[in-house]
Amino acid sequence: MRKYMIYRTILFLVFFLPVTQAIAQENIPELNKRIIEYTESVIGKKVDRGECWDLAYQALNRFNAQWDGKFQYGKLINTKRESVLPGDIIQFKNVKIKYHITNTTYTEFMKQHTAIVYKVKRKNVFTIAHQNTEFSGRKVGLSDLNLDYVVKGDIKIYRPILKSDK
């Protein structure tokens, strides 16, 4: 019986999970798609002053998105019930990320940082677009983020919405 349960779990992970993720990726709201297109157009370029916030600011204002002009970028997503999608905005506050590669431990700290979800790799693992980072300086660059490595702090993910969608 146990062998059967393990087999079913493996089948689920191999076949069903990627299908549900693909379905979620196909149901990307139009505004999110436009934000990703804009983000693609500025990779490797400095947006405004090169602050992390400037990338989200430009993307949201360019497409008439509803937001508070500070750090609330639309509808707050409950990641336990809703899928994170490309084009969603991530706000980090006092976040510490710790992970291991081979025999080395890496630690990152983000006091206040903003990024755009560029690609969803799997649940809790994303490629994010952001600037004002150690690796890309004041230009927009891409890096991976695994939420399972967050050991401290607050991460909020927002779904951009049009002003007329209030």
Query: What global shape is seen?
Result: globular
Uncertain residue segments: 3-7, 16-24
What assembly state would you assign to the polypeptide chains in this entry? single chain
Count of helical stretches? 3
Q: Quick check: average pLDDT?
A: 88
Strand order within the widest beta sheet: 2-7-3-4-5-6
User: What class do helices, strands and sheet pairing give?
Assistant: alpha+beta
Q: Helical residue percent?
A: 25-40%
Number of strands: 8
Give the helix/strand layout.
Elements: H1 2-26, H2 30-42, H3 52-62, E1 65-66, E2 75-76, E3 89-101, E4 104-122, E5 125-130, E6 141-146, E7 150-159, E8 161-162
Antiparallel strand pairs: 1-8, 2-7, 3-4, 3-7, 4-5, 5-6
Explained architecture:
By secondary structure, the chain is an alpha+beta fold. It has one domain: endopeptidase fold (from Nostoc punctiforme). The chain is 30% helix and 36% strand. It is built from three helices and eight strands, in the order H-H-H-E-E-E-E-E-E-E-E. The chain has helices at residues 2-26, 30-42, 52-62, and strands at 65-66, 75-76, 89-101, 104-122, 125-130, 141-146, 150-159, 161-162. The strands form two sheets. It has a six-stranded antiparallel sheet with strand order 2-7-3-4-5-6. Strand 4 and strand 5 form a beta hairpin. The chain is globular and about 50 Å long. The relative contact order is 0.21. The model is unreliable at 3-7 and 16-24 (pLDDT under 50).
